[in-house]
Structure formats: C-alpha cells, structure tokens
Amino acid sequence: MSWTYIEDLHRHEGESVTLKGWLYNKRDSKGLFFLILRDGTGLCQCVVNEEQVAPEAWAAAGAATQESALEVDGVVVRDERQVGGYEVQATAVRLLSPADDYPITPKEHGIEFLMNHRHLWLRSRRPWALMRLRNRVVMAIHHFFQERGFLQLDAPILTGNAVEGTTTLFALDYFGEPAYLTQSGQLYGEAMAMAFGRIYTFGPTFRAEKSKTRRHLTEFWMIEPEMAFYDLDMNMDLAEDFIVHIVQDVLQHAREELAVLGRDLAPLERVRKPFPRLTYSEAVDLLRSDATRQMLDERMEALRQEQAALEHERAENRAAYDRAKKWKKRQIDAREIEINQRLEEIEEMLRNLPQWQESARTFTWGDDFGGSDETVLTWHFDRPIIVHRYPAAVKAFYMKRDPEDDRLALGMDVLAPEGYGEIIGGGERATDLAFLEAQVREHGLPREAFEWYFDLRRYGSVPHSGFGLGLERTLTWLAGIKHLRETIPFPRMLGRLTP
Ligand code: 4AD
Ligand code: MG
What we know:
Layout: E1 16-29, E2 32-38, E3 43-49, H1 55-63, E4 69-78, E5 86-97, H2 111-116, H3 118-121, H4 125-147, E6 151-152, E7 158-159, E8 171-174, E9 177-181, H5 186-196, E10 198-206, E11 219-228, H6 232-253, H7 255-260, H8 266-269, E12 277-279, H9 280-288, H10 290-321, H11 326-361, H12 371-378, E13 385-391, E14 401-402, E15 405-416, E16 421-428, H13 433-442, H14 451-458, E17 464-470, H15 471-479
Helix pairs in contact: 4-6, 4-15, 10-11
The chain binds 4-amino-1,4-dioxobutan-2-aminium adenosine-5'-monophosphate and magnesium ion.
C-alpha cells in the first residue's frame, strides 16, 4: 500500500508515511500550519513548518480549505495530547482537490440543515462515531448467530402479503399485480426455519408509519431469528443472551465511538442476565400503581432541582462575563449553549411527565402500550425488561394463544432501559392450521396470499418461535442519543426522502 490509514499510525512511529484525506480543521501560527486531516478512520494533526518544507507544500497548506482533499507526507511522532495520540510532522503537502465554502462549518447548525446535508454531514465527528458503532453492532449480531449455528438467509423485499397489519403497507404495482414492500421477513423466516432449523434474516423492512416520532423510520433494518422447536421461554432466553452479547461487544470494541458520543457507560455496564420478565398484566398493574405515581413525582422534583441549579449557574456566568478574559468568554458562551439545551430538554420533560403520569394511572387492561408507557415502565428497572403474554387483540394474527388463557397471545417484547422502550418484538407462532385460517379471515387478510404459509402447518407443523430486533432503535439506545434518525446513513421518515 502506498499510503497509511490514520488508525494504523501507531504501527509506524518514527517512520515516514503518506496520508490521504480531507482537511477537517486548520490553525496557523507564525511559520506553522496545523492541519487536522480526516481519512475516515480517524483524525490526525499534521504540522507544516515553513522552514522545513518546499514552497509548493507551504502554499498548498495555505490554500487548503475545510474539506479540501490532501496528501501529506511526514514523520509519525507519538503525542498523547493530540487527537488520536499521534502527530505527523509534514515533509510535503499536495492539494488534490479544493473545496470552496463547505456548508457545514464548526459552528452550531440546526438538525434540519444537517439532515438536508446528510451526504456531507456523514463526514463529521458524531456521524463518524455512530456509523462505526452501527458497523460494530452488525458484526456482533452476525457473530452471535453464526457461533450458534444459525444460517443467515434473506427474505424477499417485494411481497404479496402483509405481515404486521395492513395499515402500514407501502403498496406498489408489480406488472399489474398489487405488491408491497416487506414489513418483516418473519413469515419467510418460518419457512426457512422448517427447512434449516435455525435461521436469521437481516434486511431492510418498510412501514408506512404516519407517525413522526423519535422511534419511527419508514425504512429500517431488522434482524429476525426464527427457530424450529423453540417455545416462548427459549425465545426469551435467546433474546436475553443476544442483547447481553451486543452490549458486551460494544463495551469492549467501541469505547472510542461511545466516548465521542459522550455516552455514560454505567447503564450499559449494568446490562446483565437475568432481565426482569413481567407478564403484560403485571406490567399494567405496575403502570397503574402508587409506585409509578411516586417515581414520576420524584423524577419531576429532581428535574426541577436541576433546572434551578442550571439557571443559577447561567446567571452567575452572565454576571462574570464583562470582566472575563477572552478565552474565558469563549468558555462561558460554550457552556451557555449546553445549559440552554439541557434546560429545553427539562422543560419538555416537565411538560410531558404529568400527562404520562395520568395516562399510566388510567391505563386500561387490553390497550397496547404507547411509547410513554414503555418509557415509564423501563424507568423502574436498571436493565432491559421482557414483557410477555399480551392481549391477543393487540398482537399480530400469527401469534400462538396462551393455553392457560385464551385472551392472551404468547408474544414478548424486550424494552430497553433509560426510557428507550421496545427494541425487540416477537413470540411463539401458532401451529394449528384451522386457527390460522380463522385468524387470517378475522384480520381481513386475503387468504390466497397465505396459502404457501398454511403449507408450513400442513406438512410437519412444529412449535417454533422467533423475534425481530430493530437495528436503529437498538443503536439509539446504545449510543444514548435522542432520535433514531442519526443511526442510519440516509434516514427515510415521514417527510424525508432525500438525500
Ligand atoms: O414489533 P415488530 O413490528 O415485530 C415484527 O415485525 C415481527 N414480525 C418480528 C418477528 O417476530 N420476527 O417489529 C420488531 C422491531 C421492533 O421491536 C422495533 O425495534 C423495530 O422492529 N421497529 C421499528 N424500528 C424503526 N422504525 C419503525 N417504524 C419500526 N417498527 C418496528
Ligand atoms: Mg412491536
């Protein structure tokens, strides 16, 4: 290789290397340019000394603007204080391609602006950390299943039938026939589990969600294991091991990414087996309990105290501003931005919490949990929880009924802690042909589209289970960020189809 990647610099201390990348940032001082170069694998400061390089190199360093493409030759020096821990003392700089007026400057930009420039925003530090985390989690998922002997097989994206209800289908014209973008690979996963025992699909899924929330994309990636001869308990055990594996992997291998994101690691370190398991009915009782009312009162009180402390700090900073030195003023300004952001969050929470408290108190058995109910439930626990045995009426047609109580479906959801809510949905599948035929009828689904699925119950029907993990919801939780749109390179949501 004729050049070196920044992440490999530690293997080249004292050597001459060539870096290829883009200018991330630049400072100058008398006779020196400090070029922060970005190559996708990391950042590295390149020091260009006017007295030690040819005039062309000095001119190239001077002409380079943010996101200009550059090649830098130089000697690698260990320097703990620099980003990445290494510095390159340049011997030559070549400007490969200029960049005029790059739109994303180091100042603050609004989220809409950044989303509209997602194709460029991906070059920034925070997307860098999130996309590397995504890659790490994808690898951890494959390892988990491959080590256990699961086959990764793909379900089709173009389908002739609904899986998760008909209200969120993207319809299209398939040579004159109606067709849909898949909502879940599950039904095909079931066929493949009957053929291969244990499989998992890993692919894009589509939901025409008309809700604009921090948990909904219209195109998201789902991982769906499906296992022959597994009952609900075995399914829950697998989901638990799976989540623990992902979290452990990330804690081991994505430290730098989590640090860039400012993620508090303590809640992730608490993710251990066993996860509390509650039936839906127990979860409803907990939601309506005095314990929930009290917990929310305490949260509101803590937020009010934090609010008062931040307002006090802001007032003191402002009072000191005029007398402050220039560097201190800059610090105060930066802190004020942070304080204001946090105050906005607190205000939003204080607006929402009384409503959440009220809807928890009045929740009726039989309803599906909303996002805020899930959030409130998870605040009672320090790790993910599993809620199982939901009312059949709120779950999909293919769920097996609880033999102990026909009103219940053997479904289960895994809810992530810290208020993140559902990341996994799944359950044990119905095995009885007549029951499934009746379900398809009751759900108003076209029987013809499910004939092939019924075959799975005609020829050697066995108990089986599976679940679906939403990749972006999981990443949102792992990264500790607010909105899932930043966890996928090019998000598709209500009102967003470009870039
Ligand atoms: O709970 P869901 O709808 O379950 C299924 O689709 C089952 N067929 C899966 C199975 O048993 N094989 O979706 C599963 C997960 C959710 O828990 C959530 O993490 C994610 O997919 N998800 C979404 N993620 C982003 N945006 C959306 N609109 C999502 N809808 C579901
Ligand atoms: Mg679900």
